[in-house]
Amino acid sequence: MFTLTTERKILTTSVFCVVVVVFVSFVGQGECQTTTPPPPPCSSYKSCDTCVPHAKCLWCITSKNCTEYPVSWLLPPASVCQLSQARWGVCWLNFEALIITLAVLGGSILISIAVCCCCCCCCKKRRSRPDRDEERFARKREEIKQRAEDRKVERMARHDEIRRKYGLIGDSDHPYSKFENE
Length: 182
Description:
single chain; 182 residues; mainly alpha
């Protein structure tokens, strides 16, 4: 019995050591990565096609130079480059047109979302209570049923009156009752 528990402890210890070695080997591989060299400065780019693919660079057509995008400003100031002459992202679209296009698209998306939300809310409210037209049609239907019921009662009364008149109903209180043979 003593050897069984000893063997079990050795086996458990061996499995634990293997797990630790595998874990350390995976963690150790992540630390062996090398860092990439810093990208060249924007001023080293000499054409629009090489400048604008970099998000941090801005090409100015009038001065024909590539400068760092002034991240402290939302829009580049006129001292760096005029908006109509600045290129960022693509060479064929000036920065001013890019801003206008993005503003129109963003506004359209926001308006579409607002309209969808309003429509969903209105439709939800409309479904929760009966519509005026539905209420009006239900009242008319009820009135028509009531008139039909009244006409049916009147018709049955007339038929019963005719039956009594001609003695088709065994009623002794009317003057035209049948004479009984005695």
